[in-house]
């Protein structure tokens, strides 16, 4: 996951870069999720252990996407409040 700067001290360019990095991360993570979905569709009879591994990877990725989004937006709010 990309680094999240401190919105109380970061300059505008750093905050813009953080937002762009978050968006890039989100796009890459979404591509990964799409791959997992494609595997699920193409291999419906996969072993339960593999299915669980894929499900766990999917869920971790969604959680990471949500976490980085919340962190960046919180720091952007802090930055914008200055």
Automatic annotation (TrEMBL):
Specify the protein name: Lipoate synthase
């Amino acid at each position: 996951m990309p680094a999240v700067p401190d919105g109380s001290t970061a300059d505008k360019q750093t905050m813009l870069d953080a937002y762009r990095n978050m968006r890039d991360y989100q796009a890459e993570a979404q591509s990964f999720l799409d791959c997992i979905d494609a595997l699920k569709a193409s291999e419906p009879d996969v072993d339960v252990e593999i299915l669980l591994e894929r499900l766990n990877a999917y869920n971790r990725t969604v959680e990471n996407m949500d976490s980085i989004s919340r962190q960046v937006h919180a720091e952007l709010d802090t930055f914008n409040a200055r």
